[in-house]
Design goal:
Organism: Novosphingobium aquae
Strand content: 15-25%
CATH architecture: 3-Layer(aba) Sandwich
Protein name: Chromosome partition protein Smc
Number of helices: 5
Oligomer: single chain
Function: Required for chromosome condensation and partitioning.
Strand order of the largest sheet: 2-1-3-4-5-6
Bound molecules: adenosine-5'-triphosphate
Shape: globular
Number of strands: 6
Structural class: alpha+beta
Subcellular location: Cytoplasm
Family: Belongs to the SMC family.
CATH topology: Rossmann fold
Length: 193
């Protein structure tokens, strides 16, 4: 998957709508301390479904919304749009929006979807909010210090099989529900005999 464009509005320090084109090849983001370089990487993680406030350097999920400054009032929502191209050259547009008091909503190619569906789209393309391709400050040291199980998770994400675990969990839940239904049916049949 190749990320082609990123649009931010009200996300952290990006109070005004901003659009970035990410060309093929190496992209560098330069700027003075505190200008929002890390916020850009966090916007990519966030639109991919990141839900850990800690990994977004916030106390709660709504902390990604522009909090206001001495000169500017705060915003009520934050939105990030990611345009990408999948391995087959198909265009993909993922939108995540959060409103104060209303939580997050996602859209993929114009359709409302669940957070889980977004995670699967990226997991199947061997990427996602926890992809080792998104290297934030301190990440290299974290990889070196990672426990074997954590390293395995990183490798599984890089190999594109992380989505299989989500589907397996879903299938196991359905199986358990079906088993419970069957047991109830047998009870009822037993009472009828
Ligand atoms: P450095 O080079 O020091 O790592 P950076 O360019 O990566 O800095 P970021 O850490 O991305 O900068 O941006 C930090 C800035 O974003 C700070 O000025 C902070 O006040 C601002 N910021 C973060 N969250 C919000 C928010 N919710 N509302 C407004 N501003 C925010």
């Amino acid at each position: 998957m190749r990320i082609k464009r990123l649009k931010l509005s009200g996300f952290k320090s990006f109070v005004e709508p901003a659009e970035l084109r990410i060309e093929t090849g190496l992209t560098g983001v330069v700027g003075p301390n505190g200008c929002g370089k890390s916020n850009l990487l966090e916007a990519i993680r966030w639109v991919m479904g990141e839900n850990s406030a800690k990994s977004l350097r916030g106390g709660g999920m709504e902390d990604v919304i522009f909090a206001g400054t001495a000169q500017r009032p705060s915003r009520d929502f934050a939105e990030v749009v990611l345009h990408a191209e999948d391995g087959e050259g198909e265009e993909l547009e993922v939108v995540r929006r959060i409103e104060r008091g209303a939580g997050s909503a996602y859209r993929v190619n114009g359709r409302d979807v669940r957070a889980k569906d977004v995670a699967l789209v990226f997991a199947d393309a061997a990427t996602g909010a926890h992809s080792p391709a998104l290297v934030s400050q301190g990440k290299i040291a974290a990889v070196i210090a990672a426990k074997p199980a954590e390293r395995r998770q990183m490798l599984e994400e890089a190999a594109g099989i992380a989505g299989l675990h989500v589907r397996r969990k879903d299938a196991e839940q359905k199986l358990r529900a079906t088993e419970a239904n069957l047991a109830r049916l047998e009870d009822i049949m037993g009472q009828l005999d």
